[in-house]
Structures are given as C-alpha cells and as structure tokens.
Amino acid sequence: FRYGEVSEVVVSTPNQPVIFGQNHPLVVVAGPCSVENEEMIVETAKRVKAAGAQFLRGGAYKPRTSPYAFQGHGESALELLARAKEATGLGIITEVMDTADLDKVAQVADVIQIGARNMQNFSLLKKVGATGKPVLLKRGLAATIEDWLMSAEYILAEDNPNVILCERGIRTFDRQYTRNTLDISAIPVLRSLTHLPIMIDPSHATGKSEFVLPMTMAAIAAGADSMMIEVHPNPAKALSDGPQSLTLEAFDQLMKEMVVLGKFF
Ligand code: PEP
Ligand code: MN
C-alpha cells in the first residue's frame, strides 16, 4: 500500500509553501464552519492570520444532518473564500460533497476537504484524487483506522500522494457532554502505520468550545502535525456549529498557549 510510503505534503499558498508532516512546525487551519457573508469571512481570515494560522477553512457546501438546516451558500461562498484569500494570502481549505462541484471547488481550494460523511464515497475519492490537489481526508463517524487508510489509498492510487488525514472524533455512546469522542490514540497508531500527515479537529470532536483548548494540547502532546479549529466572530449567531466555535479572542489565546508547547514557529 502506498500509505506506507514516506511522505510529507507541501501546499503552495499565496503567502508561502506550507509543509504538513512529522518533522515540520505545526500547521494551523482556522475559520468558521460555514462561510456566511463577506464581512465575517474576511474579518475572520485577517484575525486568524494575525494570530499565526496558515490556512482559512470555511464551508460552502455543508453536510447537514437535517435537510432543513442551513446547507451552505454554495458557489457564492466559494467566491467569498477567494476574496478572503486575496485579502490575506492564506491558503484555503473547503469541502466538496458532490463531484458536480469539484471543478469550482478546486479553483479556490488549496486543499480539498472530504468530510467525515463522505469518507467512503469511493467515486468522490477517485475524482478528487485525480485532480492532483492536496486532499484533507476526514475520518468517518464510525470508521476503523483500516477503513480510513483504505480510503486514503483510493486517493493515493490516483497517483496523488498529497493526502492529509484528519481525526475529528468518532461516535461513541455519550452525546450529552461531547458531540463525538476524540480518538487521541489514533495519532500514535497512525504513526506506526503511515507517514501521511496527521491533523486533529478538536472542534467537531468535542462539539463544545470550552473543550477545544485541552484537546488541542492533548493532540499536540500525542504528536499531531496540524490542527483544524473552528472560529467565528460571533459564535452565538453562527449559522452552523456555533457551540463549538471559538471567538476570535479565544483563538488568539489558544495560539499563545500552543506556542508554549513548542513544535510551533
Ligand atoms: C466541517 O469540517 O465543517 C465538517 C462538516 O466536518 P466533518 O466532516 O468532520 O463533520
Ligand atoms: Mn462545522
């Protein structure tokens, strides 16, 4: 399997080439769950950049449990991500859910995200892999490590070595106090099996902003290469995932605490 081959993922962004991998400084991806309007995405981009993030995240196409929940602004949100990129030089990470949107997403995204719910959408994996663009592959809600690595292999098999694995919490039995359970043990397990870069998303894992900082610290201690953090200028008004989103100020604080742990800057 190609997932066992030595690799690091280099992503060119307007500001700089960013390297994801074990022997490189921690990479931070931050931004709102959904791109809501120009003002909020540009403001968030500027603030997370000032705090030290290298990538802006933000959903245009959102995989929502309810068909009546906000589904993302789609194509117009991609345009807003392009403006935030122009304003800051940050790299852009955004999700593609449907192969029909792939060309449009690939035009603005420096890294294409495959969400947890699509981890085993094999036709999507093949087509995204074939673009040659870096791919962020989130772990499925109930995927084993082997399932996950096999999904990565679908992308690698398209001759695209640029896969980043993202642990975002798995389903266990407690839905009251945490949204999912962050599988910290996945980090050393993956290290023993693959050289692919490992990202941790403590926001979707916990579902609660007050638990994001301790889980970020735990993930860095366990050896994660990169972090994905949801940040919103006004979490109480967010159109999706407000409860787990950090304010801009809380994100500043988190970045300061991460510097203390080293492996950063
Ligand atoms: C997201 O990153 O906004 C998202 C929907 O994540 P996941 O696929 O991990 O639920
Ligand atoms: Mn979200």
UniProtKB/TrEMBL annotation:
EC number(s) given by UniProt: 2.5.1.54
Boundaries of every DAHP synthetase I/KDSA domain copy: 13-258
Keyword Transferase: yes
Keywords: Transferase
GO molecular function: 3-deoxy-7-phosphoheptulonate synthase activity
Protein name per Swiss-Prot or TrEMBL: 3-deoxy-7-phosphoheptulonate synthase
Species: Anabaena azotica FACHB-119
Shown part of the complete sequence: 77 to 341 of 366
